[in-house]
């Protein structure tokens, strides 16, 4: 429904901040609508970019703290993402699963941090827990609770070999979330553990704390890692600034929102997610090819038929 | 040279504890020799199995601490493994590189911990640092300093989907080694951080320390993670027990050495290492097929020719 609501809202002149779409085709239609109404704000809710930890990390990367970036290594571990009762979170085709829910925010974050995009991806998805106390009988979970994927980012220079990203997501680990993003480069490394940022240059003996925990007074959502919630909060604050900058609050200032993920970023993320899913089925590296043309109107039907065949 | 020395030593009636061979063919010849002299001790120097941390971990896994094993997640980070001057450590074909040096001990450890073997593997190797202050001019490092690989282990039961293993090795991170082995199962998890063992059952809120650091009084080898050195020390102690059990010290007691990796384990590890290297080139999942017959005498020549073609 994300696509229908987003496109309709833009059509009646509303600014739109929205969650990811369920498919690439939906994402593409959102991009088309956003292009059609350039005066309206249209951003994705991938809020990790707004978290001060990652704002600082990106700044340090640009300043050359780690030298040339070689490897990004991300892990998110935590409890099950499934709802209490059967619903879309259990269903892969409806956008459930660790890759779609959390993985997509990581894909967006890594393109923000490295300033480049994945051109080839490889992944493996698993559903270890297919039934539990509340989802049983004829019902089965089809969305992934474990996923690892690798992304080869396109190199910026001609000499560069490009960054390798490895991401591990595991949601069979009750307890608190582990949310770690590490970037290793030729002269040092940066690690964001939760909302804290650490760094170590190759010469020095120990890690240094670059940004401490700011103290979170908001609610603790059980089913979401803290960096995601705090990022959302930071994004809302930035949005407020953006609208307060103009007196009438009917238009908005572009500058604070410049780093927000656009619908185009949303299409990229959705394309990578689908390429990883394809790779998990095919076992091969899959190319990330961004959709450039409105798909055939029968596409959805064909896709549904093909899926049934598989 | 490992193969020649090992096979010759067995031939003149010596017990053999040795490092890994450089190729599968060499490993196979060592297996053949070990089978020919069953009275002699013939074990591989993959010493992680002997480290008390992993002995305890394996015991807890058998006792069902984590329930059914789902995922093994391993990371080893540290400084460069290259020698000061140009030598075999720089050369992939001579057995240099993170995968061959450290990865092989992890592959052996994971088959020890899970009690199963990899049947399909996928990997990616990179040499980020091809030249440094002492290796330069026309010389280039060809051995990997970064590697991640995945192994799908064969399931034990018919219902089991098999364990997924993900391993990340990165030797572009000067400072002390990070050596972490995590096993996640349906009812809990075990994590070995360095030589300490932690566990958490799904019901409980916090990790518990299951085995503390025993305090290491031996030397700190700069180019090797501590668990590997301590494991070696444990293995030597076990070897002493094994020989002290018999008065003359010319024969040895099999019982303490029962868990030692045999030459057959060595052949398995070498086969996985080569499959991962193949996968890094082909980009595809590669099957792990253990050599069962003496290879064609021209095999080495053919292999060399093929390599040159590539």
Automatic annotation (TrEMBL), chains A, B:
Signal peptide location: none
Superkingdom as given in the UniProt entry: Eukaryota
Pfam family of the protein (one): GFO_IDH_MocA_C3
Domain (GFO/IDH/MocA-like oxidoreductase) ranges: 54-190
Molecular function via GO: oxidoreductase activity
Family indicated by similarity: Belongs to the Gfo/Idh/MocA family.
Record protein name field: GFO/IDH/MocA-like oxidoreductase domain-containing protein
Keywords: Oxidoreductase, Signal
Organism this protein belongs to: Mugilogobius chulae (yellowstripe goby)
């Amino acid at each position: 429904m994300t696509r229908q609501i987003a496109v309709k809202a833009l059509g009646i002149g509303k600014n739109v901040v929205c969650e990811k779409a369920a498919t690439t085709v939906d994402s593409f239609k959102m991009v088309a609508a956003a292009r059609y109404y350039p005066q309206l704000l249209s951003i994705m809710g991938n809020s990790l970019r707004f978290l001060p930890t990652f704002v600082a990390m990106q700044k340090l990367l640009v300043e050359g703290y780690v030298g040339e970036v070689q490897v990004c290594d991300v892990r998110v571990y935590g409890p099950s993402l499934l709802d209490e009762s059967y619903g879309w979170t259990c269903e892969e085709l409806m956008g459930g699963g660790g890759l779609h829910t959390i993985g997509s925010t990581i894909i967006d974050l890594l393109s923000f941090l490295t300033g480049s995009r994945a051109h080839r991806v490889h992944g493996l998805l698993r559903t270890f827990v297919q039934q539990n106390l509340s989802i049983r009988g004829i019902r089965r979970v089809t969305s992934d609770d474990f996923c690892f994927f690798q992304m080869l980012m396109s190199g910026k220079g001609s000499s560069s070999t490009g960054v390798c990203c490895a991401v591990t997501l595991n949601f069979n680990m009750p307890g608190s979330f582990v949310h770690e993003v590490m970037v290793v480069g030729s002269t040092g490394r940066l690690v964001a553990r939760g909302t804290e940022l650490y760094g170590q240059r190759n010469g020095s003996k120990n890690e240094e704390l670059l940004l401490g925990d700011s103290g979170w007074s908001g609610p603790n959502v059980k089913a979401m890692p803290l960096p995601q919630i705090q990022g959302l909060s930071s994004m809302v604050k930035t949005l407020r600034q953006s609208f307060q900058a103009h007196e009438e609050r009917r238009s908005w200032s572009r500058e604070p929102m410049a780093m927000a993920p656009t619908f185009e970023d949303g299409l990229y993320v959705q394309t990578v997610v689908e390429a990883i899913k394809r790779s998990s089925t095919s076992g091969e590296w899959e190319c990330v090819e961004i959709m450039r043309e409105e798909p055939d109107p029968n596409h959805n039907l064909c896709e549904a038929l093909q899926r049934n065949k598989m």
